[in-house]
Specification:
Number of domains: 4
Number of strands: 16
Radius of gyration: 32 Å
Strand content: 5-15%
CATH architecture of the largest domain: 3-Layer(aba) Sandwich
Helix content: 40-55%
């Protein structure tokens, strides 16, 4: 029977390995993984149940099909409970076993493909705790992947709430230093008088209250990375000291006389325009160039609106779990309001909005009533705050209004990445109306 199955399966194009009994089968399973195991239930040395259990223990993805020659199917049913894919009773038809094996391997291939696709989607649209599928964020993910294992210093810039610390963590925890410390230092939260002792440590007796030696945050991060948040807030005097650490990879504790060597990757973040700070003399030019070896710019949320639904659902899942709520969905009306809002607080503000909505919502769907009033400020109100001057000689109203309308059409198409239905939704007009306006202004030819 074993020789017959081997010949038949090889003719079907499968790679086949045979075992005389259960003990030999266990040895083969220990030596390498198999996609599928076809095993008799009753065998000398080790029975089919042992083979099944060990196959699943070594590789849960292995498909196991049992063969039984007995009228009772109790053992076969028990095998199914333990994870067997199916069982075959003797005598069996050749076409039957071909069909079962073919379907089993096809199912396994689909499962593996789905796992691979999920991994690809996760790596494409999510990096660490960063979430977003916009072209801008995909560029950020790509840059992170390319710089993780370099030793170069990194400067992350972006408005408050855009997720600069998450980017810093993504860089560190995807690098070869991921098992080493990641120390966050908020430069705006530490008083200038304590900055040196906090970062470099101090020796016993260096000042009043220094009753013992203390390791600084740079030394604690040795082998790993320090994340200097709000680097633009450093005083000019401390900027000089930081420059020396970056250049020499050494520093002295407060009150110490010996240099301490450290191997630390420096990742900085700022919401300021450091180039402008350098021009105005508020930030040292030499330190700026030392820190700005690789720059990662995080776009504000208003410039990547296609990420709002993805982020909103991510935060919905997060806070539904944390708050023990059954809120599973965001209503279309609520999502439309979220898409129109300008988010001066960026991703952090969106997270707060969703957390608040989940906490307040009594149903399983977030409705507009659970969103804060600020969300309902219409973007067009802020878009046209400036007054239009009427020239002494008058103006062509239709031409001016047409210019504004055409500009908004192009902007909507850009935000929708050329998808006209999405652009119509953003402008709150019908698809037919959008096509009419595109044709009216000669924009349709460029889009199509």
């Amino acid at each position: 029977m074993r020789e017959f199955l081997e010949i038949m399966l090889r003719k079907e194009g499968y790679e086949v390995a045979c075992a005389r009994d259960g003990k030999e089968a266990l040895n083969r399973l220990e030596a390498r993984p198999y996609d599928l195991v076809l095993s008799d239930i009753r065998m000398p040395g080790a029975d089919g149940m042992e083979v099944l259990n060990r196959a699943k223990e070594l590789n849960p993805g292995t498909i196991v099909i049992m063969i039984t020659a007995y009228g009772s199917t109790e053992s076969a049913v028990e095998a199914m409970k333990r994870g067997a894919y199916d069982y075959i009773t003797k005598p069996f038809q050749v076409d039957e076993i071909k069909l079962i094996i073919g379907k089993a391997l096809e199912k396994k291939a689909l499962e593996e493909e789905n796992i691979l696709l999920r991994k690809e989607l996760k790596s494409k649209y999510q990096f660490g705790n960063l979430v977003g599928s916009s072209p801008e964020m995909l560029k950020v993910y790509d840059l992170i992947q390319r710089v993780t294992d370099t030793k170069a210093n990194i400067l992350i810039s972006g408005e408050s709430g855009t997720g600069k610390e998450l980017v810093a963590k993504a860089v560190h925890y995807n690098s070869s230093r991921k098992d080493k410390p990641f120390i966050t230092i908020n430069c705006s939260a530490i008083p200038e008088t304590l900055m040196e002792s906090e970062l470099f440590g101090y020796m016993k007796g260096a000042f009043t209250g220094a009753v013992s030696n203390k390791m600084g945050l740079f030394e604690a991060a040795n082998g790993g990375a320090t994340f200097l948040d709000e680097i633009g807030e450093l005083s000019p005097s401390f900027q000089v000291k930081l420059l020396r650490v970056i250049q020499d990879r050494t520093f002295r504790r407060v009150g110490g006389t010996e240099d301490v060597e450290v191997d630390v990757r420096i990742i900085c973040a700022t919401n300021k325009n450091l180039e402008e700070e350098v021009r105005q003399g508020g930030f040292r030019e030499d330190l700026f160039y030392r820190l700005n070896v690789i720059k990662i710019q995080i776009p504000p949320l208003r410039e990547r609106r296609e990420d709002i639904p993805v982020l909103a659902r991510h935060f919905l899942d997060k806070y539904s779990r944390e708050l023990g709520k059954e809120t599973k969905k965001i209503s279309e009306e609520a999502m439309e309001s979220l898409l129109k809002y300008s988010y001066p607080g960026n991703v952090r503000e969106l997270e707060n909005i969703i957390e608040r909505a989940v906490a307040l919502e009594s149903s399983n769907i977030i409705l507009p009533e659970s969103l804060p009033p600020v969300v309902f400020e219409h973007p067009s109100e802020s878009a046209f705050q400036g007054e239009l001057d009427l020239p002494p000689g008058g103006l062509d109203l239709e031409e001016v209004v047409g210019g504004i309308e055409k500009g908004l059409l192009l902007k909507a198409l850009k935000n929708a990445r050329g998808v006209k239905k999405e652009a119509a939704r953003l402008l709150r007009i019908s698809f037919r109306s959008l096509r009419y306006r595109l044709k009216k202004y000669g924009v349709e030819r460029k889009v199509d």
